[in-house]
Design brief:
By secondary structure, the chain is an alpha+beta fold. Helix content is 22%, strand content 29%. Strands 8-9-10-11-14-15 form a six-stranded mixed sheet, covered by helices on one side. A three-stranded mixed sheet has the order 2-1-16. It has a three-stranded antiparallel sheet with strand order 3-4-5. Helix 4 links the parallel strand 10 and strand 11. Helix 1 runs parallel beside helix 2 and helix 3 runs parallel beside helix 4. It is globular, with a radius of gyration of 19 Å. Keywords: Hydrolase, Polyamine biosynthesis. Homooctamer. Belongs to the carbon-nitrogen hydrolase superfamily. Its EC number is 3.5.1.53.
Length: 300
C-alpha cells in the first residue's frame, strides 16, 4: 500500500500591538490557539510582537526592551504552548547578546524543543524604520530547521525583499518559507504605499523556488515619541499565504485581526519542484557577480 503524502497546515497571525508585553503575548497565545483549532501545524506570529515597533525613533532607553536568548520569558511561554498544542512556533524577539543586539527568531518545535536561532541579516535604515541604531547585522547566515512537520526556512521582514535569502533557504531544503514582518506607512511620504509591491515580491520567491510562503504582518496605528517630535506608522497588515507557484491561497486585509490557514501536500510539491527544473538548470558558475556590490568587484 502506498504511503500517504505529507500534509502540513500552516497559519499566519495578524493583530494590532499595544505597548504592553503581557497583553501582546496573551493576544499571540489566543491566536495561536485559534489557529490550532483550525488545524494548523506551523503557526507564524508577526515580527517583534511583544510591543510597539520602537524603531521609529533612536532612543537609548529602548535597548531595555532587549533580553538574552537563554531564559527569555516569551520564548519559554511559547515552548510550553507549542508542547501543549503540538504545533511549531517561530518566536520573534529583540535579542541582547552581551554588547550586541539582534532582531532574532527562535524556532520552537511541536514538542517544545528550541531548535535554534536565526538573526536578521538585512537591517534597514530609513525614516520610521531606523533599525541600524538597534540591531547588529545577523551572523547566523540563512538557515533551515527540521521541525516535526516540515523543513522550514525563517527570515525576518527586510530579508523578504532579497531573492538571495529565499534561494539560500530553498537550496538548503526548506519546504516552506516564513517571514514575520512589521511594515506599514512611510512617515516621510504619505503617498508611498508598498503593500502590493511587498506582497508581489514574496509571491515571486514562492514561485521562483516552488515552495509555499507565509508572511505575517501587524495592523494598527503606532505613535512613537522621537527627538524630532512624534512619528506615526499605520501598519497595513496584508498578511498572506502563497502556494508554490506564487498564487495567493489566503489573504488578510489592512485593519482586522486575522488567522489565516492553508494546507499543502509537501510530497506533491516536491515532485513538481523537481520536475520543473529550476534547480536542475541552475548555473552557480555564472553567478559570481552576486558576490559583488557594484557588479564587478567581489566583496572580501
Amino acid at each position: 500500500m502506498a504511503e500517504k503524502n505529507r500534509l502540513v497546515t500552516v497559519a499566519a497571525l495578524q493583530f494590532a500591538c499595544t505597548d504592553d508585553v503581557s497583553t501582546n503575548v496573551a493576544t499571540a497565545e489566543r491566536l495561536v490557539r485559534a489557529a490550532h483549532q483550525k488545524g494548523a501545524n506551523i503557526i507564524l506570529i508577526q515580527e517583534l510582537f511583544e510591543g510597539y515597533y520602537f524603531c521609529q525613533a533612536q532612543k537609548e532607553e529602548f535597548f531595555h526592551r532587549a533580553k538574552p536568548y537563554p531564559g527569555h520569558p516569551t520564548i519559554a511561554r511559547m515552548q510550553n504552548l507549542a508542547k501543549e498544542l503540538g504545533v511549531v512556533i517561530p518566536v520573534s524577539f529583540f535579542e541582547e547578546a552581551n554588547n550586541a543586539h539582534y532582531n532574532s527568531v527562535a524556532i520552537i518545535d511541536a514538542d517544545g524543543t528550541d531548535l535554534g536561532l536565526y538573526r536578521k541579516s538585512h537591517i534597514p535604515d530609513g525614516p520610521g524604520y531606523q533599525e541600524k541604531f538597534y540591531f547588529n547585522p545577523g551572523d547566523t547566515g540563512f538557515k533551515v530547521f527540521q521541525t516535526k512537520y516540515a523543513k522550514i526556512g525563517v527570515a525576518i521582514c527586510w530579508d523578504q525583499w532579497f531573492p538571495e535569502a529565499a534561494r539560500a533557504m530553498a537550496l538548503q531544503g526548506a519546504e516552506v518559507l516564513f517571514y514575520p514582518t512589521a511594515i506599514g506607512s512611510e512617515p516621510q511620504d504619505d503617498g508611498l504605499d508598498s503593500r502590493d509591491h511587498w506582497r508581489r515580491v514574496m509571491q515571486g520567491h514562492a514561485g521562483a523556488n516552488v515552495v509555499p510562503l507565509v508572511a505575517s504582518n501587524r495592523v494598527g496605528k503606532e505613535i512613537i515619541e522621537t527627538e524630532h517630535g512624534n512619528s506615526e506608522i499605520t501598519f497595513y497588515g496584508y498578511s498572506f499565504i502563497a502556494g508554490p507557484t506564487g498564487e495567493l491561497v489566503a489573504a488578510a486585509g489592512d485593519k482586522e485581526e486575522a488567522v489565516l490557514v492553508a494546507q499543502f501536500d509537501l510530497d506533491n510539491i516536491k515532485s513538481k519542484r523537481h520536475g520543473w527544473g529550476v534547480y536542475r538548470d541552475r548555473r552557480p558558475d555564472l553567478y559570481k557577480v552576486l558576490l559583488t556590490l557594484d557588479g564587478s568587484n567581489p566583496v572580501k
